């Protein structure tokens, strides 16, 4: 902009007017992009490095837990209509410039009736998309630290099975889904082996507490491999990482915090109320009492969003990104949901709003998290 002003031959008033008019055109253009919630390529850079790895990821990713799942999501049934909606969610995300997808070997476990494996679905969506364009998709998947999986060899072996389901020769991020019952040293060595074999670009963990993070970081560091990420439950209705030292240690060691359930499994949209609770297992977690208790927070989130022409979901995701070093991965079941997420990028809540929302959120009693965080 300074260049435009210097090179303009007219008076300073004209320069000023031109500045204002150019700014206004840009703001209008940006607002229309925001309203559409898409085409991130035309606004400021929307990628960051994952921890100290070389991997660039979008500032927001998409969670694929619900794709094919019949244990927690989808009212215990999966069908072609839901599959098409998930496929549309995938394509809408990529169209909007969001290319990071998070899945896991246990999502859509074949143990549950009618389920389809989430990795297989994601692999199929990627393959179909590749026939249309060459957009690079960044895949993050996870190793299930099941009690009978002992030692480092189990990590590379499980990763190879994941790669088969995904139809890929390598993935971008491989994460330990939760800490092992018998210890983690073997699994961490296995992550390092996966990097050295060229099967994965970056490695991370999930549901790791502060001490486990420090241990994993130090163990990988001896091999010159950065621990890139820790994926934990983090949202305006679940701020445990701020209180249990996990966010602080991620910032200290340069580990990206990947925030799961970042829209409180749909609650932060405001669509669930004490009169209209979510169906399935979510109804037990976000019960009438919780949904009554969370109302003042939801009202304030909505009000703030209104000032920006943004939805509550977009505010909730923007609030997480505003913490710095946080990549939220909301789950999208439909194209519309994915498009809405894209509108969380390209603008910023003020520091005062970020602070005020934290204060309002601190009055809400958090829901029960994953117990391993506290062990
Ligand atoms: N590492 C771990 O242990 C762990 C644990 C949990 C999740 N994760 C990861 O994190 C991802 C996201 O977490 P999550 O799926 O638990 O929760 P979430 O992202 O907070 O919520 C996702 C749900 O919110 C609803 N929703 C989505 N967009 C919406 C919109 N625009 N308006 C209204 N409702 C909307 C949808 O369900 P409805 O439409 O049915 O309401 C959707 O399935 C998962 O997919 C998974 O990849 C990891």
Automatic annotation (TrEMBL):
Domain NADP-dependent oxidoreductase: 59-359
GO cellular component, one term: cytoplasm
A Pfam family: Aldo_ket_red
Presence of the UniProt keyword Amino-acid biosynthesis in the record: no
Claim: NADP is one of the keywords in the record: yes
Family matches, as PROSITE patterns: ALDOKETO_REDUCTASE_2
Keywords in alphabetical order: NADP, Oxidoreductase
Domain of life, per lineage: Eukaryota
Gene Ontology molecular function: any one: oxidoreductase activity
Protein name: NADP-dependent oxidoreductase domain-containing protein
Species of the source: Picea sitchensis (Sitka spruce)
Lineage: Eukaryota, Viridiplantae, Streptophyta, Embryophyta, Tracheophyta
């Amino acid at each position: 902009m300074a260049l435009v002003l210097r090179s303009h031959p007219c008076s300073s008033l004209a320069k000023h007017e031109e500045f204002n008019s150019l700014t206004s055109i840009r703001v209008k253009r940006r607002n229309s992009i925001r309203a559409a919630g898409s085409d991130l390529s035309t606004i400021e850079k929307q990628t960051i490095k994952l921890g100290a790895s070389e991997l660039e990821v979008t500032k927001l990713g998409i969670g694929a837990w619900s794709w094919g799942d019949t244990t927690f999501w989808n009212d215990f049934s999966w069908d072609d209509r839901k599959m098409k909606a998930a496929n549309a969610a995938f394509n809408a995300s990529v169209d909007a410039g969001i290319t990071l997808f998070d899945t896991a070997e246990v999502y859509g476990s074949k143990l549950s009736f009618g389920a389809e494996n989430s990795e297989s679905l994601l692999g199929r969506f990627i393959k179909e998309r590749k026939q249309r364009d060459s957009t690079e998709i960044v895949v993050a998947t996870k190793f299930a630290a099941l009690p009978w999986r002992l030692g480092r060899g189990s990590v590379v072996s499980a990763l190879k099975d994941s790669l088969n389901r995904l139809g890929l020769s390598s993935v971008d991020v491989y994460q330990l889904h939760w800490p092992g019952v018998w210890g983690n040293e073997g699994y961490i060595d296995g992550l390092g082996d996966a990097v050295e074999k060229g099967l994965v670009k970056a490695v991370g963990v999930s549901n790791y507490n502060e001490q486990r993070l420090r241990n994993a970081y130090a163990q990988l560091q001896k091999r010159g491999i950065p621990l890139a990420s820790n994926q934990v439950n983090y949202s305006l209705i679940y701020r445990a990482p701020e209180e249990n030292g996990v966010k602080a240690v991620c910032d200290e060691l340069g580990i990206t915090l990947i925030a799961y359930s970042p829209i409180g499994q749909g609650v932060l949209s405001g669509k669930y109320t004490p009169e209209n609770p979510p169906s399935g297992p979510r109804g037990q977690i976000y019960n009438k009492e919780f949904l009554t208790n969370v109302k003042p927070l939801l009202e304030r989130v909505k009000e703030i969003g209104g000032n920006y022409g943004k939805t509550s979901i977009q505010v909730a995701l923007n609030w997480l990104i505003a913490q710095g070093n946080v990549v939220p991965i909301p789950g999208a079941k439909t194209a519309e949901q994915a498009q809405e997420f894209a509108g969380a990028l390209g603008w910023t809540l003020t520091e005062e709003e970020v602070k005020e929302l934290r204060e309002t959120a601190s009055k809400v009693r958090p829901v029960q998290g994953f117990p391993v965080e506290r062990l």
